[in-house]
Amino acid sequence: MGKHEPSAALWQRSATDLAEAIRTREVSSEELVRSCLDRIEATNPRLNALVDVRPEEALAAARRADAAVAAGDELGPLHGIPVSIKINTDQKGYATSNGVAALADKEADDDAACVTALREAGAVPLGRSNSPGFSFRWFSTNELYGRTLNPWDADRTPGGSSGGSASSLAAGMTPIAQGNDIGGSIRFPAACCGVVGVRPTVGRVSDYGPPAFADTPGGPVELDFPPTVHYCAVQGPLARNVADARLALHAMSAPDVRMPQGVPAFPGAARPAGHQVAVTVVRGNADVKNHPAVDRALDAAVARLVDAGYVVEEVSRLSLLTEASRLWALLITEDIRLILPVVQQLGDEAIRTALEGHFGYAAEVWGERPSLETYINGWARRATLITRMQELLGRQRLLLTPVCAELPFEQDADQAGPGRTRELFSAMWPMTAVPVLGFPAVTLPVSLEDGLPVGVQLIGGRFEEDLVLDAAQAVEERTPAIRAWDRGV
Predict the structure, then answer these.
(1) Among 122, 287, 390, 448, which one is most buried in terms of CB atoms within 10 A?
(2) Per-residue model confidence as pLDDT tens digits over 12-30
(3) Is 185 an active-site residue?
(4) Distance between CA atoms of 249 and 462, rounded to whole angstroms?
(5) Contact 173, 50 (CB under 8 A)
(6) What integer pLDDT is reported at residue 2 of this predicted model?
(7) Mean residue pLDDT across the chain
(8) Residue 220: C-alpha distances to residues 53, 212, 339 (Å)
(9) Is the pLDDT of residue 281 over 60?
(10) Cβ–Cβ under 8 Å, residues 449 and 225
(11) Higher per-residue confidence, 343 vs 31
(12) Given the residues 35, 86, 167, 426, the one annotated as active site
């Protein structure tokens, strides 16, 4: 999406376009926020994507942004642009409920680092986006706020856990949304709702939040997060087009010494003149067969990349991605085991059922209770796979994969029993492989099938987000616009 259409309402315009319009005083931030609030009023009652919208607070922030423009102050890249913040991410003065009723009053004393970065870039927080309880399902329903719908089809999941982020974007409520991803939670919702999702390299966007404490007889004790939180989970942006996603990613990328896996600076994207990027297409693995529409989406992306000058080669499967997906079922599951008592005590029935299915699937792969030796060896094997992946990709190769072997799942498919749960996990191998390896990945829509968006995933070398986004941009420029509001949302 380039320049806005002359008749477009403000809420329809891209963040990149709007940031320039605010900077040049063509548009005020207050006008933009009011347009988004009107769109929220028109669409959110049906979709339930945003769950805590405070209009006067957002309008006051917009007026401050406009005053800064008038004063000639230095402006950030997202100055005056509305963004949504997920309910599992600390935002000062808002509950970090994670969709759990018992945490509905857990008001944050300060912003998480990624929210601070967005504010420092000039963004105006506008609404909290919904997620599943404990943010650990590929669906976005919880007992506190209820169900979020997919704007394209209410009977299909909007994805999870950043389902509210993706649904609100697709409906035009804000141009940018913040999300997080440990098993596809940015990329899968983006694909389900026909928007762009960016999972950055681990360490690029700060995941730091205030430490957690537990009350003990001896006094408060600081809780350590499990290793998968530090080395597999990321914060990142969702947006309606690649340019906006790139803008938001760069705004969120702030080195943070408090992150154990953080880096002090990021490599640049400069490459030798005439440098040509190769793309390897990985269609699947031996465990699952793609829906025909998924293969058609890959074919479309390949044709567009070739047209843009990329060298494309095909492989039927890549064993290290298959192995990484299997490792996810070990490492993530064993870390979740530590919080099971809390989930069982505070979680709703849906998350308890979902985790029962999750553990059942992991037991089929790794046994009922993997040993400490198996767990330690899993982390060691992860390091080897990262090395192998970096050797494969370097700075000159990308991978193109499905987002999922299926189209967006039917709502609450993870409540349908062990057989369906096994199918979900098998289908989601492209989502679970990437977090274990910590590489950057982008999902974007490339086609519509039976009224549903179908996307693809591009994966690049560590800290090569711009290389991945360049390829995503090339695909997007050759793809007809896929917008929910064109179909009456």
Answers:
(1) 122
(2) 999 999 999 999 999 999 9
(3) yes
(4) 15
(5) yes
(6) 47
(7) 93
(8) 33, 10, 18
(9) yes
(10) no
(11) 31
(12) 86
| H/E segment holding residue 221 | strand 219-223
Structure tokens at 57: 């607070």
Task: Give the span between the Cα atoms of 407 and 405, in whole angstroms.
Answer: 7
Residue type at 46 in one-letter notation: R
* Token code pair at residue 228: 């998968």
Residue 276 in this model has a pLDDT that exceeds 80 = yes
The residue from 129, 135, 168, 185 that is catalytic is 185
* 28 is a catalytic site residue: no
Whole-angstrom Cα distance, residue 255 to residue 357?
A: 38
**Cα 70-75-79 angle, rounded to 5 deg:** 90
Q: What is the CA radius of gyration of the chain?
A: 21
**Active-site residue (options: 140, 161, 253, 325):** 161
The verdict on whether 161 is a catalytic residue reads yes
Query: How many degrees, rounded to 5, is the angle at CA 143 between CA 139 and CA 145?
Result: 80
Alpha helices in 110-225 (DSSP H): 113-120, 163-171, 187-193
Tens of pLDDT, residue by residue over 282-340, are 999 988 999 999 999 999 999 999 999 999 999 978 999 999 999 999 999 999 998 88
Task: Please give the Cα distance from 317 to 315 (Å, whole number).
Answer: 5
What is the Cα–Cα distance from 259 to 216, expressed in whole angstroms?
Answer: 26
Which is more confident, 316 or 455? Answer: 455
Percent of the chain with pLDDT strictly greater than 90:
84
Q: Tell me how far the alpha carbon of residue 237 is from its chain's centroid.
A: 6
- 29: its two tokens: 């931030």
CA proximity to 155, closest of 458, 465, 451, 444: 451
Measured distance CA(296)–CA(414) in Å, rounded? 26
